[in-house]
Amino acid sequence: MSKSEAPRPNLTSSEVASVSKSEVASPRSEATSVASSEVASEIDRSATSEVAEARPTDREAVDTSLRTVSTNASHPGADGLVTADVSLDIPSNGTFYFRRTTEIRTAPVMDIKPTFVFSSGDHVIYDKVLKRDNHQWISYIGYDYERYYADIAALKTENTSSNTEATRDETIPERGTYYFTKPADVKNQPSLTAKTEFNFDPGMSVNYDRSLLADNHRWISYTSYSGTRRYVDLGAVAEAVAKPRGDIAIESHDNGDFSVVISNVSDQNGVLGVSVPIWSEKNGQDDIIWYNATRLNNGNYKVNVSLTDHKNERGLYNVHLYYVETNGKLVGVGGTTYTVPAKVEETHTTTSYSLPDAGTYTFKERSSIKAEPRVASPELAYYDAGMSVNYDKIVSGDGYEWLSYLSYNGNRRYVAVAKLAQQESKPSGTINIENLSNLGFDVHITNVSGGDKAIQGVSVPVWTAKDGQDDLVWHQASRQSDGSYRVRINVSDHKAEAGEYIVHLYYVQDGKMVGIGGTSTTVPVQNATRHNLPASGSYTFTTRTGIKTQPLVANPDVSYYDSGMSVNYDKVVNNDGYTWLSYLSYSGHRFYVAIAPTSVTKPVEQPVQPSTPSSGTYTFKERSSIKAEPSVASPELAYYDAGMSVNYDRLVTADGHTWLSYVSHGGNLRYVAIDAKATAVAQPASPSLAATGTYTFTKPSSIKAQPSVASPELAYYDKGMSVRYDKVITADGHTWLSYVTYSGARRYVDIS
Q1: Residues 233/219, Cβ–Cβ less than 8 Å
Q2: pLDDT per position as a tens digit, 709-742
Q3: Mean pLDDT for the stretch of residues 438-443
Q4: What is the pLDDT of residue 23?
Q5: pLDDT-derived band at 532, boundaries 50, 70, 90
Q6: Domain boundaries defined on the chain
Q7: What is the β-pairing status of strands 537-540 and 566-569?
Q8: Cα–Cα distance, 301 to 273 (Å, whole number)
Q9: Other C-beta atoms lying within 10 Å of the C-beta of residue 357
Q10: Is 3.40.50.10490 the CATH number for 245-340?
Q11: Angle at the Cα of 60 (from 54 to 66), degrees rounded to 5?
């Protein structure tokens, strides 16, 4: 995503006011070549445009006088705007006398707003003559060192074609400033058959807000000063460049809702899921929702969009298309727009409640009595229609107006009598970066609010700025006791890269991904000598590094070493994905300091048995557990009974079993074993051991990522150490304590 593949926030350009005749820049007597001044942008003046002026005029620098150095005795000029098949026959430089009011622009493009005008009788010393945008122009550099253009004749309309030679597709951001290195056609539609309105020349630039593929060409798009959407052809995309593709079609509904249908889905890396971010043009991306498209029987994908999920906004909607590839990467495919027609105005009659601050109220319908002014508060009793109550307060809360009174036993009670005007409540959250080191950092989300909707999950996509999103990982944050969410980001999950990390925040609400915000942080560079450490010696730290009592990332820091400090160590330990220095303190306690991630080997999906298709519909023959990981030890989230079916998109062989895999409505990957061998392994604990609690070890015990004897040892507990566990299971012929680490990883300890 560049910094974000997801759609970015909008930037609005400043207005450029017209300059009066007295502010006209005088021509210079000699031709001056100023390369940067020839870089011009088409200017957008629409309220919602993201196109900014490339070279605004500095009015304070403009000289009001005009110099008249004649270089052509004939005084060439024009009595009026000339329309001809040929241009005016004038020298390549000289003095031009205007015989009509002539608009002056910062680029030889009729589509942009003029900055000022010359009147009949004015003259200018020019140094260039050129043809652009079906007009003949003279050009000069004013005293403000800006280059200006005056159209002196309108020419016969010509359609030009840009270079159609197939080239490799340019990798450009979704929006920004584009500097042209070759001529480029400008059209009103992203189609090769559309009329060419004018051209951009090398050295010119434009601020654009969209990038798209159409007609096998790369296009950028912007809104012109006149409000017209323009498309610039950057050239053909070579057929050899195999890119994900899909066709987007919009189906409108009578009530304004619409559906998005994606057909011809193709990706050489495979498609695990289809995501469609949608938002209205009004107020930027404040209503953006990432939809997970549903696969249809014909292979197409579909998303149903309700206006109520987008603040009932009408008008222009942006629709983008992303694929989740089988390698876990999120790749952009394309996008389009759709305009929801304006709603036919209807007349509504509303009833306004104007109640005194205290008095007697007679109920017109059954109304619940509650202990709090909240809709979710349980009903304690009720008033029927015709009953009355003496109240002493009127309060507002939870979208309603409430009568309040003291009951006979002295308790305050509340009854809702009117719904208040709906106030918009947006989801929100504050992203905090904590415990930053060369090993990674914590993302701590505070002030968590889902607005008017519940939060089913918190996702934190993270990737490094280097090489785009090649290391993108969607991390799932865990809810804390105080209502905040936290997730540990280890650099080992992101190719052990140092430098800038991009962090975005999404809530899962009603099964949809809702963007909340984003930030970035910089992971310091790791010590360059980490790969050639002696078995013991002295080590000098280059960044602040935590000291721990165990070689575990989740183990809390007891202290730290700052950059420049040193330690004498006697061991080098590889554990929990990192290389650790270990030493004995003066008190005789052993401590560990992580200095670099070790290489991480991820499980490789093995070929599946040929008897089951790689995707399709599967009908279960027996009750089968649904799990978050393809692991026997993973807890059961739910289950399918015999006779039930599921649409799956891949098969995975892991932990000695074959698993169906699919994306749930909440956007989460789910796994179901289908070889009838992966039964739940959790069994009642030993009568002498509680199901949860604290366990003190009587001997050294290995910590593992799976409840399997063959699973590698990540660390260990020594005799006398303790752990708080939340599960006791029996697996692989052993009894295991299980707990969740600080980083959110589940661990298992063999106590048998």
Answers
A1: yes
A2: 767 777 778 777 788 888 888 777 778 888 887 6
A3: 87
A4: 31
A5: low
A6: 21-155, 167-237, 245-340, 359-419, 428-523, 530-597, 616-673, 693-750
A7: antiparallel
A8: 10
A9: 8
A10: no
A11: 100
In the numeric block, which tokens belong to residue 218? Answer: 């790369």
Cβ pair 434, 487 in contact under 8 A: no
Q: What is d(CA 388, CA 288) in angstroms, rounded to the nearest whole number?
A: 46
The mean pLDDT of the chain is 75
pLDDT, position 477: 92
Query: Token pair for residue 643?
Result: 């006779």
Q: In three state form, how does the secondary structure of 603-667 look?
A: CCCCCCCCCCCCCEEEECCCCEEEECCCCCCCCCCEEECCCCEEEECEEEEECCEEEEEEECCCC
Cα separations in angstroms, 639 against 612, 631, 633: 20, 15, 15
Q: For the segment 19-57, what is each residue's pLDDT rounded down to a tens digit?
A: 323 333 333 333 332 222 222 333 333 323 323 333 333
Identify the CATH assignment for 693-750 out of 2.40.160.210, 3.30.750.24, 3.40.50.2000, 2.30.30.40. 2.30.30.40
CATH number of 167-237: 2.30.30.40
Half-sphere exposure of residue 471: CA atoms within 13 angstroms, side-chain side: 20
Q: Is domain 616-673 given the CATH code 3.40.50.720 in the classification? A: no
pLDDT at 260 over 80: yes
DSSP calls for 131-171: EETTEEEEEEEBTTS-EEEEEEEEEPP--------EEPPP-
Sequence-ordered strand ranges (E) for 284-423: 289-292, 294-295, 301-305, 315-325, 330-340, 359-362, 367-369, 381-383, 388-391, 393-397, 400-406, 412-419
| Locus of tokens 């696969």 | 295
Q: What is the homologous superfamily of the domain 21-155 according to CATH?
A: SH3 Domains (2.30.30.40)
Residue 606 confidence (pLDDT): 37
3-state secondary structure of 289: strand
Map residue 111 onto helix, strand or coil.
coil
pLDDT tens for 324-339 read 887 778 888 888 888 8
Confidence of residue 14 (pLDDT cuts 50, 70, 90): very low
Residue 364 CB partners (closer than 8 Å, separation 6+): 385
179 DSSP β-pair partners:
205
Vertex 704, ends 698 and 710: CA angle to 5°?
A: 105
pLDDT digits (tens, 9 = 90+) for 565-612: 888 999 888 887 788 899 998 888 899 988 877 644 333 333 333 357
Report in angstroms the alpha-carbon separations of 729 from 159, 310, 628, 635, 747.
75, 46, 18, 11, 12
Count of C-beta atoms within a 10 Å radius of residue 644 = 12
In this predicted structure, which of 390-399, 514-523, 653-662 has the lowest mean pLDDT? 653-662
* Residue 713 identity: E
Distance of alpha carbon 718 from alpha carbon 748, whole angstroms: 15
Domain 245-340 matches domain 428-523 at the CATH topology level: yes
